[in-house]
Structure formats: C-alpha cells, structure tokens
Amino acid sequence: MSTASSIESVLTEHRVFPVPEDFQAQASIAGLAQYQALVNEADTDYTAYWAKLAREKLQWTTGFTQTLDDTKAPFYKWFADGELNVSENCLDKHLGTPTEHKTALIFEADDGVVTKLSFRQLYHQVCQFANGLTALGYKVGDRALIYMPMSVQAVVAMQACARLGVTHSVVFGGFSSKSLHERAVDVGASLIITADEQRRGGRSIALKPAVDEAIALGGCDAVRHVIVYARTGAEQAWHDGRDIWWDAVVDGQAMECAPVAVNAEHPLFVLYTSGSTGKPKGVQHSSAGYLLGALLSVQWTFDAKDDDVFWCTADIGWITGHTFITYGPLAAGLTQVVFEGVPTYPNAGRFWEMIQRHQVSIFYTAPTAIRSLTKAAENTPECHPRHYNLSSLRLLGSVGEPINPEAWMWYYENVGLERCPIVDTWWQTETGGHVITPLPGVTPLKPGSCGFAFPGMDVAIVDEAGEEVERGKGGFLVIRKPWPNMIRNIWGDPERFVKSYFPAELNGYYLAGDGAQRDQDGYFWVMGRIDDVLNVSGHRMGTMEVESALVAHELVTEAAVVGRPDATTGEAVVAFVVLSGDVPAGDEAKRIATELRNWVAKEIGPIAKPKEIRFGENLPKTRSGKIMRRLLRFVANGEAITQDVSTLENPAILEQLSDAY
Ligand code: WTA
C-alpha cells in the first residue's frame, strides 16, 4: 500500500457547472438546504435517520425494533430482527398500483430485436421460475451460481433466487471456466444457472461448455443441477440428470409464488471482486440494508421519476448491474433498458441510437465507454452522437473509475448537449450503492470530481493514523460509520474481511482502498487505488491474480504485473516475465507473448490479458527479495527512474527491462 503522503494531487480543473434551475425545481432532493437537512438529520441521530428511511422505503413482513447492532463490530447488523423479501419489494409491491402494467424491462438483443415486459409479466416469470427451483428442491440458504448473458432471464434468475432466499453469486460471462470453478467451489454452489451461448457484437460465445469444464475440474460436488437457457439453440453436450433446460424448469409451473420472508441480514448475494491477493473476495451483502441503499441511490442520485426511462449499461456480472439493473430500478418502479450487446455493434452509434429509440432519460455508463466512443466518433463521424436525437435525456451518470475532465466535457457537450447534469458516482462492490456523488438538483459540477458524500454517509480522507488530512492534501478514503448497504463479510473468510477493510490503525474506519483528496470547497477527487488492484476499463483486477495466472504457465518462473495509464481503458496491464529458458527476442518473444496473453485469457478471462509483456532474466528486487513494483511502473511508462536504486539486488535489470521492448 502507498503511504498517504505519496498520494499526489492531480487537480488542475477549475470549471464549475451550476445546477440548472429547472432541474433543481423538480428534483427529489432540491437544493443545498434540503441536502444539508438530511446530512444534519444523520449527524444528530444516525440510527434514527436510517431507521426512518428503512421503514418508509421498504415493505417489511416483520418490522424491526433494533436498527444497528454493533456489538460484534466490524460485523455490523442492520435492522437485525426484521424480516422481508427483496423480490416482493421489487415486484409484488407494484401489483394493484398503476406501475403493475407499466413496462419494467425493455430488452434489446444484440441483433436489435426488442422485447418488452410489464412489471406484472416480469412478476409472473419470476414466480414461475422460482416455483421451478422449488420443485427441484432449492430453498432458503442454498447458493446458486449465475453465469448468463445480459438477458431478461438473468434478471428473472436473480429475482427468483431472492424470492426463495437462495443466495446468488453472479459470475461475469467473460470469465473463464477456471474463474468460474474457483467461485463455484468457494461459494459452495448447489445450482448453476447458465445459457447455451451469449451473443455479443454479432458473434456467439459459448457459456455452457465453460460450466462443463468448470465442473470437470472437480470439487463442485455440491452442484446438483445446471439449468440452461437456450439463447441461440446451439447443440450441447448433455449430462442427463444434472442438466435441465430453462423451459423444462418453468413448464407447467404456477404463475404465483409466495415470497419467502428472510431475516434482514440474510445474504442476498455474494459477488466476487479483486483484492490485493491472488484469490478473489466473495463480497457478501445483506437483504434489507442492501436494498435500501440500492433504492435510495436510484431515487436520490438519479432523481428517478415515474416517467423516466433508465439505462445502466453495466453487465449484471458486476455490482453496478446488481444495484442498477436487478434491484434498484425495479424497487423504484422504473422502466429500464437492458442491452445484450456491445456499444460498437453494428457501429459505434449503437448507444445513441438506442437512447433515441427507447427515449432514454437517464443514462449511466463508464468512462472507458465514453473514451472509446469519443475516439470512434472521430474515426467514424457518422457515428457521432450529433446524428441522433438525444433530447429525451435529462441526466447522465458515470461509474467505475475516475473520469478525466476531457472525457467528462465530451460527454457533457455531445451527449448531454450541455443540458444534462452528470453524476460521477463513486462506490464499490463492497459499498452496495453510491457513497460519494453529486446530487443533480443540489451539486454544482466540477468535471472529474464526484462531489460530496451521499446523505448519511460519513466519508473522510485520513492519513496512516486515521487522522483527517487538511483540504488539498491526499490520503486514504475511508467511511467512518457503518452504513446499511455495506459489505457484511468475505464469504468464508471473516479474518480477511477484518484485515482488508478495518485495519487496526484506522480507528475501525472502513478502508476503501482508494487514494483521494478534498479541494477547498470540500469536493472529493478520487485518484485511484492505493493497493495492488488495477482498474482496466472499469473492471477491478488484482495484479496478483494476473501474476498467479502467468506463473501457472510452464514456461514462466516469475512474473510481476503493474498498471500503466491508458487513454482508452484507464489503466492497461503490463507484465514483466522471467522464463525458465533464455530471454527470448524478436519473433520468438512475440510468439511467447501471444501465447501468454491467450493463457491469461483462458485462466481468468479476456479482460485480464496483458497489453504488453516484457521479458527479462530477472526482476528488480530488494536485497530481501521483494519485487519493486514501483520501479516497474516507471519502466512500464517509459519514465526515467530518478530514485536511488543502489539498494537493489540487481540494479542492471532495470536497463534490460527498459530496453526489452
Ligand atoms: C473505482 C464499481 C473514481 C475505485 C462500482 C473503486 C471510481 C473501484 C469511481 C470499485 C468513480 C468506481 N471515480 N473511481 N466515480 N467509481 N471507482 O468494486 O477505485 O468494481 O475502489 O465497483 O472502482 O470498483 P468496483
């Protein structure tokens, strides 16, 4: 981890965009006074603030009497004697209201075919699938692994699990069978829900075969069924007795299914994310607290209104897809777009065309997408957003990595046409919902800053001793008080949970793992990770995960992975590799680099492929044998190393690695 003082400010941005008056006039939190009132309420009586919201926003089967149980901190419990069902709060609650017949999902397939479902229709699909799961013997406490394309069925599968109290763990469809296997074993899945294939950018990508491979790796003895949704109808190898088609599961099932009330703390899902070690962390979320945070984020940050059409472009395999597709928008009764494909197919105007076609009013995407579409609009001018009617938009959002001011300005001018506020939302898999974000009816915007704390969140920037640093100084981003939708545990590893997030020096504060600073106006500026976690295209990955994958290859004896700033993907993976044989050169080096890149794609997934691989006969190490990744970062960036390297065991290696490319 870096030291707090090494987190430098990169702040040069002075533009401020005021809150549009008409926006403020209609906003759910309208103006600074209203924001301040909420902040004061939370300050005055923290638990009363959250208790009131939990009672107001959620439907309880059994009301809670205790708001926060901190007796086993940092294993906090919220609303612990209450009971509810999350799916009931997303679907049943709208029955008998005007929302019942409103469109819940507008699903657009890769090939452009559109399917719409009302809340009532979605409710029936969820009930039928849940009944099918019950018939197969699944019940509260079981774990289901979901490995699916973006689809109506993926939302149905997650909601059906929630309905029964089956804890789901969604694995991104771009992960390899190895990654899938690791997660299935760790979470102890007894059920896997998948599809035959997924369609992206006009191509079919197999999913079910990866599940077969994962199970064949062994250790998944708990898995009793693999449910397969036929997306393309591709021929499948079939394991009788274990594999079952989606249609057979729902066939003949009743259209109603009573939701199973679970304890507020019941794990709704476990979602794996990267940390500083080679092993992904199973982030365990609760039911009630998580849902409260998801709903508030939709209502407050996105200012959701009944006639909005919401579109979050994230995949359901990430937390953003959980909170802003499967749970938040449904709980808020919003119409939303769900998209199967990629932003560049059939051309780079796809997002803009879809906004126009579906009259999207709130659009939430990632900086990496904005940067690549900016580039595409230059290269293929016919795909520039100006050729589309984007007048339905009223609010834009950004998430996943720091957005650089140039990308912010392009988004603001070309997509939002200088009318739409941009909410740059900072949060994490572990936080469940927004933590620092502008509120569109409250916060004047500074490009590149994520504004202020979400009402009720106690965010600060501190030094190594947990002391708050002065304005303008860099430090660690922490959350000082527990909050309802926080991570509850790392699945099966409570020790790692405490060690990773609540280090003893920091007074019991939650350590986010990001470096940040606040400017003189109190705006937060997030600088990026302080640990060995990379952020490539908004995807979190641990350098250790990529290193472990590399050294698992028979030719590799040692590997060190660092990030390098990249104009499109934010960061790019650069790997320094020592082979068991000689240092390769020329075509030989190219051939082995390609082989290793493909190997990493197979071990983890294509998102983890190193952009560049450099070979050396050694790695820069201290005399105690520690790899100096900091120096490698300079090398990867082609920067001169100014610091003293005489303490290195092998200073000459730096030159070799710098020349290696
Ligand atoms: C980064 C995604 C700057 C950050 C929701 C965080 C951001 C990590 C922003 C979490 C933002 C996310 N500005 N950085 N608006 N949003 N990050 O768990 O480093 O996939 O710690 O959750 O992404 O990534 P995760």
Descriptive report:
The two termini are 28 Å apart. A seven-stranded mixed β-sheet has the order 5-4-17-16-18-19-20, with helices on both faces. Strands 7-6-8-11-12 form a five-stranded parallel β-sheet, sandwiched between helices. A four-stranded antiparallel β-sheet has the order 23-24-26-27, with no helix packed on it. The protein contains 19 helices and 32 strands. The model has no long low-confidence stretch (mean pLDDT 95). The chain is of the alpha/beta class. 54% of the residues are buried. 31% of the residues lie in helices and 21% in strands. The chain binds 5'-O-[(S)-ethoxy(hydroxy)phosphoryl]adenosine. The site of 5'-O-[(S)-ethoxy(hydroxy)phosphoryl]adenosine has 23 residues, from helix 11, strand 26 and strand 27.
Structure in a nutshell:
Its cofactor is Mg(2+). With 661 residues, the chain is of the alpha/beta class.
Features:
single chain; 661 residues; alpha/beta; 7-stranded mixed beta sheet; 5-stranded parallel beta sheet; 32 strands; 31% helix; 21% strand; globular; EC 6.2.1.1; ATP-binding; acetylation; magnesium; AMP-binding_CS
> Level of helix content?
25-40%
Shape descriptor reads globular
Largest sheet: 7 strands, mixed
Helix/strand structural class? alpha/beta
Small ligands present:
5'-O-[(S)-ethoxy(hydroxy)phosphoryl]adenosine
* Rg, alpha carbons: 24 Å
Number of discrete helical segments: 19
Pick out the low-confidence regions: none
Tally of extended strands? 32
Output mean pLDDT. 95
Beta fraction of the residues? Answer: 15-25%
What oligomeric arrangement do these chains adopt?
A: single chain
Strand order of the largest sheet: 5-4-17-16-18-19-20
Terminal residue distance = 28 Å
